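Per-residue structure
===
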Amino acid sequence: MSSVEEVAAPTREDPAAYALSAGVGGPAGRHSAGHPWWTPVRVVLLLTALTFAVGMVQKSGCYATDWSDTEVRYSQMCYSDLPYLYVGRGLVEAAWPYDADPTVRSRYAVMEYPVGISYWAWGTAVATQWLAALPDLDPPDLDERRATAVDALYGLDGVVDETVLFVVVNALGFALLTLLTAWFLARTDPRRPWDALAFAVSPALALTALVNWDLLAVALTAAAVWAWARDRPMLTGVLVGLGIAAKLYPLFLLGGVLVICVRQWRWRELVTAYAAAALAWLLVDLPAMVTGPAEWKVFWTFNSDRGPDLGSVWLVLQQVLEGSLGWLPQGTLSAEVVNDGSWVFFALWCLGVAVVGLAARETPTLAQLGFLVVAGFLLVNKVYSPQYVLWLLPLAVLARPRGRDQLVWQAGEVVYFCAVWWYLGGHLASPSGDAPFYWLAILLRLAGEVYLVVLVTRDVLGGRRTPVATASPPGPAPGPAPGPAPTAHATTAQP
């Protein structure tokens, strides 16, 4: 562990942190000795826990109405996929997500997620039913549920309570994943634990953590970046493979690994990371492939068949050009057209990131390269759900740990988060049926992301692995605050 003197203090290098520190005792002084227990990592974990708790409070409106009130879930912006999929995907019957039984498949659609999320959802459903049986150990009658029509299941005794409990069980798991993510971010560079602060207090984290199961892949991504910083390519590959089994986007970290290894001629590490990722992914997917190969393929066909969807620039083009203005014939932006356009753009984007990474003065970090690739994927993806901000969050806070820039980017995410639920609730439509405010929110969100991409690209080309200020922030030089001499621990936990 680095000494206190070696730990970078944001209040010395970040003008935004310097200004905000006035309310908590001023910037860290040159002689700050450090608190014996409140280390930066522990402060980050505490703030992460508080942020997550605030996010759960924000969902209280839906919790109070058992997630059954459509008006509440949109007007109070507390929507979550979890309670609806508990019944909608057969988890209420503890059905294996990849069960090929025709009876099960005639009742329920297949989980449209990668296997990691499906396994997690199934495991938490089993845990939910076990907890619901306490204290009398009276398990639910699954045979009765299998004999009941799906649309009548909510009327059975205990199903609604189980649905709410299912959300609670998942939320507890998400809390652990969030704390693990914060720990990995704070420990990626022991000299810069405060870089994780933007994750710990992120409004985007609080608002979107419970929307879906994305935090599983987020934690694995942060762990992979941490492992690579520890020069452990095999562990990096394993964690990336596990992440790919939960969501596709951790795959893009391997592009960053490729650029770094090419620059440094680390061919052994490259092969090790790639082989470990492939093997880990295969081992995790194998149970689903064996028990239900057709069901396992649903994730891939589901995504290829869908057209422009929520949050994407493609949806804006479709609704404005095909609908409002009528400049394009209906159906021009079909799923096939959007697929081809997205992949061509993304391929060119990846090529551009590779050129930037190879042309940089110094070798970029995996977080910087990973952020740039994932951002490009999201900018042109045909669906950009509100919780996808979590994909970028751990990478962004390490790639550009500056308070002002994080606020600018996340402000756009917060605006979009509000707009998408009000749009789905029918509150943003104009008399003509159009939703110009929703279109504006999409474009504002994308603009904030592009803003961060430009800054990270500039850092990479300039050879800055972290955007440390070259001069002191405005105002007096950092040092002990005027007045009585501070105690040894007075400024330890200040960011």
